[in-house]
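Here is the promised in-class demo. Please do not try to memorize the tokens; focus on the logic of going from shape to residues.
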């Protein structure tokens, strides 16, 4: 078959499809370069329009153009956007983000909840009918929220069902809520990594821990994640050289399994974004 680890909840008849999906987004490595394009809901227009941003950033097509040109592993966004633009960019590997929320409505006691908008069965049917390269699903959990139980259950069911359809499952794991004082606490980050492993996720997207020795803190999280691979979120846009250095350090010193990039790609004009994406791809996939 291959050296890809196949979870036991992937049926025998779907093992080959799982291997093909996993191999396509990791390019035959154990690492993942995820381009995060779910922020049209998460951040509204906050990061897509402003005096320091080129006008092209505000167009949704910009996200898809980068995904098509930049040698990424997978482009994560909502099913609706893929339905609107996917036919124009049919060579892209897609990961469907099942849940999203805006920041507009304060949740009770400041504890967030993000409910599932599409079912995995709907994603599987969309994949079959559209013939697009739908490789997996993603789901955000706000660990520590008083509503974490709802999100944990939805995520667990989504991971299981995705595997039964031969798709890869990625969890966004963000500690957040009234009781969370530091969402980048190394112990909390490692704890979230372990939760993702317990849910059966193939990859978990985490914030970079705040620590004197980030490499060591990431290594502890990687250990806690077991055979679930960790990818760190890119965060706000920073100087490209610093971003590429941090990405390299996370992988080489922290032993993480890749990177998730949003603003550090799509807030640039297409030519620059493509150049950056190719550089990131060389770090993640080319060592």
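The designed amino acids, position by position:
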């Amino acid at each position: 078959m291959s050296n890809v680890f196949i979870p036991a909840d992937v049926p025998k008849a779907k093992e080959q499809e799982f291997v093909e999906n996993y191999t396509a987004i990791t390019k035959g490595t154990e690492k993942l370069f995820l381009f995060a394009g779910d922020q049209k809901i998460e951040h509204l227009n906050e990061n897509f329009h402003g005096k320091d941003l080129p006008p092209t950033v505000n167009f949704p097509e910009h996200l898809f153009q980068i995904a098509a040109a930049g040698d990424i592993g997978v482009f994560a966004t909502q099913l609706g956007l893929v339905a609107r633009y996917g036919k124009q960019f049919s060579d892209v590997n897609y990961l469907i983000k099942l849940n999203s929320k805006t920041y507009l409505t304060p949740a009770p006691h400041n504890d967030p909840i993000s409910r599932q908008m599409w079912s995995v069965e709907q994603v599987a049917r969309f994949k079959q009918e559209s013939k697009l390269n739908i490789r997996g699903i993603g789901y955000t959990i706000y660990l520590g929220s008083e509503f974490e139980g709802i999100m944990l259950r939805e995520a667990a069911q989504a991971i299981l069902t995705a595997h039964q359809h031969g798709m890869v499952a990625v969890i966004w794991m963000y500690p957040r809520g009234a009781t969370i004082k530091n969402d980048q606490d190394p112990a909390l980050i490692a704890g979230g990594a372990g939760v993702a492993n317990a849910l059966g996720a193939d990859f978990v997207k985490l914030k970079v821990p705040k620590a004197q020795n980030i490499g060591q803190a990431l290594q502890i999280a990687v250990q806690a994640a077991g055979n679930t691979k960790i990818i760190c979120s890119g965060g706000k846009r920073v100087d490209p050289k610093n971003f590429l250095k941090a990405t390299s350090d996370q992988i080489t010193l922290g032993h993480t399994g890749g990177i998730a990039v949003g603003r550090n790609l799509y807030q640039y004009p297409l030519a620059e974004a493509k150049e950056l994406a190719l550089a990131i791809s060389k770090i993640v996939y080319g060592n």
